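Dissemination and training. As part of the outreach component of the grant, students in the summer workshop were shown how a complex can be specified as a set of sequence lines and then modelled as a single object. The example used during the hands-on session is reproduced here so that future cohorts can follow it. Participants entered these lines:
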Amino acid sequence: MQDFAAVRSEMGEFWNIRSGLEESVKGFFSAPPEADVVLESLIPEKDFNTAGKGSAEVKNLLKRLGVDPEVLRRVAVAAYEAEINVAAHSRGGMMDSYIHSDLIHVVFRDKGPGIADIAQAMVPGFSTADDMVREMGFGAGLGLPNIQKNADALHITSSAGGSTVLEFLIYFANNER
Amino acid sequence: MLKLSQYQEAIGGVNCTPELDPAEIVIDGGYACDMLSDVMGSAKAGQAWITIMKHLNTIAVASLTGIPAIVFAKGNTPDPSVVEKATVEGICLLSSELDTFSLAGTLYALLNR
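and obtained this result:
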């Protein structure tokens, strides 16, 4: 039987919140309100044609809702990078998008095998991508940094051998400027 | 600002998406790179993207980034499925025999006349 405490100590967690948004992000995660619209999308392992469908669906919906084009681009890029990560590095997973009146919350849950060292994975240029992924022009080690750059809040939990949950928040009011 | 058709003429480009008219597409810059994450991170909407990557994901990247035209270097030509997807997304695909360096240089010169 596995030692639960030992497993817990190996569990990695990463938070990055855009400066000035700490209070509202904490408020959101401490009591997440019910979303107005929920979109679900499956991300099969190593299927780079299906990866991207969820992002495209979200982008089209937000466009119809009149979201600022620059915010739209940030949501699309962050979501697509995360979808590609799930397809490239995991045994497949799910993308769930929760659309609220003022923000979007997107959650990616995969079936493992987890990230051994999240801090290392966040370093631009660090990648564990295989040759197939690299030949497609991915695997530059820029995916997670790109998500961090575009999201107002990024939260990752993972452990070696376990699954990874990556979630981000992007407010429709443009906080990047 | 430059009409894509002017650039197409300068590089001897073949329009792989005949349903889209390069004379109706305006570009205001360019980005040359084969790493898709770098393009998503740094390319801007309205720029022409010069690359040798011609698989389906390049169309997704262009669409998400707001890139109206992709220029394939060294005679690379996309598969029909890629052309079909680009046409639906309204992204014009050009193919040229020139390499990335020459394509970028030509675009730079045209934009900075």
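The first strand of chain A starts at residue 12 and ends at 17. Students were then asked to discuss how this feature might be tested experimentally.
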